[in-house]
UniProtKB/TrEMBL annotation:
Gene3D superfamilies cross-referenced by the UniProt entry: MetI-like (1.10.3720.10)
Protein name (record): Amino acid ABC transporter permease
Compartment annotation: Cell membrane
Sorted UniProt keywords: Amino-acid transport, Cell membrane, Membrane, Transmembrane, Transmembrane helix, Transport
A Pfam family it matches: BPD_transp_1
Family statement: Belongs to the binding-protein-dependent transport system permease family.
Amino acid sequence: MTSHSAGGDSPPGPQSIQAIRLRHPWRTVFATVLIIIVALFLYDMAFNRPVYNWSEVGKYLFDTRIVTGAWYTLQLTVYSMIIAIVLGVSIAVMRQSPNPVVAAVAWVYLWLFRGTPVYVQLVFWGLVPTIYKSIDLGIPFTEAIVSLNTKDLLSYFTLAIIGLALNEAAYMAEIVRAGLLSVDKGQNEASIALGLGWWHTMSRVILPQAMRVIIPPTGNEVISMLKTTSLVTAVPFTLDLYGRQRDIAAVTYQPVPMLIVASLWYLTVTSILMVGQYYLEKHFAKGVEQRPDVMKPTVETQAIGVVGTDDPTTPTYPSGGGETIVPPHNRPGGGA
């Protein structure tokens, strides 16, 4: 309750607040120490470690074999991710199927490919031409009509793509399923009420909203796939970036410079993919980050006196501190 002094003086007006910035000296000290450590590490790499052999790095950075290996790595990444995304969407839909057999098959697929290391899976795919030497087509329990040699039909490049794609599809299925579940069920019900079919509901209502959740982890999976291609040597496929640098290092006996060359190429391609991921996220996040402006007061905030205190007919009572108190009656909201 606001009160006034007996002399009728108005309360003092609001005063501006002078904020004093809180100092954090230890942050500056910590940042300085980090800069010194990084500078010492870079100096040591440049001048005190001949094993890095930077001239060798420059010599093979744009070598034809390295560039060709980077191209194979990029192909493995793109082809595997395309197959993984298509298969992952199918498995995500199967997981939500009311048919228990279909849902169980999808669950077993996820359990198998997420529960075993990708390197082990690639080794098995490399052994497919040995396990299944031929692919026979025909009527069961009769003589084969067509018999194909597995080694001629499936190259190591194809087997590497299949192994990477099947493993990645298990993770993409969970990403897509999480995106679909993030959309409110009311969106689906509203689409049905408007007479939209399943395809139009998914393509025009559900998926555009789910993409906001799907894109970020999918971008991470693409970057992860780029680095996972270094494991295709288990198939064995040795024409990728990691395989080519290893072949060159086996001849020059300079493994460290060649590892630096491969790392620089991986970093370059990863940086490009991160830029693409940023713009994709920005595109599918349109309208999500927009929020209405905070409503501002129409009048300046100031001290407000109690209604009726300046009226001489309003009875007041003295308080122990020398102030006058306005009773609750004869005021808006008060008693009679």
